[in-house]
Amino acid sequence: MILSRTLESKLSSLYKAGKIVGGVYLGTGQEAFSASLGCSLKQDRDIFAPLIRDQAGRTAFGEPLIEATQTYLGSALGPMKGRDGNIHRGRPAERRLAMISHLGASVSVVAGMLVARRIKGELDGVVGATSVGDGATSTGAFHEGMNLAAVERLPMVVLVADNQFAYSTPRSRQFACKSLVDRAKGYGVAGTEVDATDLLACLETVLAAVEAARRGEGPQIVVGKLLRLCGHGEHDDGSYVPDKVRSSDLGRDCLERGIEQVVSLGLAGAQEIEQWREEAASEVQAAVAQAQTEPRPDPYRDNWRAYSWEGMEP
Ligand SMILES: Cc1ncc(C[n+]2csc(CCOP(=O)(O)OP(=O)(O)O)c2C)c(N)n1
Questions:
Q1: List of the chain residues with pLDDT < 50
Q2: What ligand 1 atom has the least distance to the C-alpha of 163?
């Protein structure tokens, strides 16, 4: 969570300095929920399709920092070879899918990958997971993917980060149900809700959902109640979020709360945490410096394949 917050604050500065082309979307305030998923999945077999606010989950699932800075800074040596920007990066051969902008589409993609593994006899012990926002739960792709996953009882975990807004549209203008967990009942899948500003609660709830899916209990929807503590992207100041919501429990900072929890459990002291922050700053600095010195794509010599396909030649 510290690494993710540090990286994203650097990316925001680089964007504001005009060094990053395209949008920069941050997960400030959503790190506990996202990291809990990344930590709960098994890096050697599970599938993770992140959303725009999942830097913490990506890091927890093993994405090296350099892959983020290479993509944001357009390095030809990055996973997208400097052509596909920013959040749309991944290594499908390592089951880290590239983020898809079309809301809800990742649910169908993960469901499809799980069906494919079942057909090939390779589904044993595998979990497929993705994150969506509250807004995405009203798309056709989300519905079709969830319904398929439910009918096929796929080992799928869908995290819904209910951060109160889809861009500037509040929940009251998005759907009429009281809680998004109610959607789980409609699909006939398990649904749980968690205070996503609480790291310990997130770890417990998300791990339980991943384990249930792995045991064969079918798709699991976990709804995290929180607020994004930033604009939709760095081009947006989020001024439409009412002060009342900002100062409510939803607006608590999961990172600061998480640090308090770690300290009060005696897992680390204030000095050690300060050291983690310093280490994170140097790691981020090194990843930015390296990506800045790497070559840019050369349109005259490129083979025009979007992904690095190492390890999955067709
Ligand atoms: C199918 C589709 N419709 C509209 C958009 C445009 N769009 C991009 S982000 C966004 C809001 C997303 O809100 P939510 O799903 O709640 O996620 P959050 O940004 O709050 O994390 C919209 C409408 C899109 N990307 N895909």
A1: 314
A2: 20
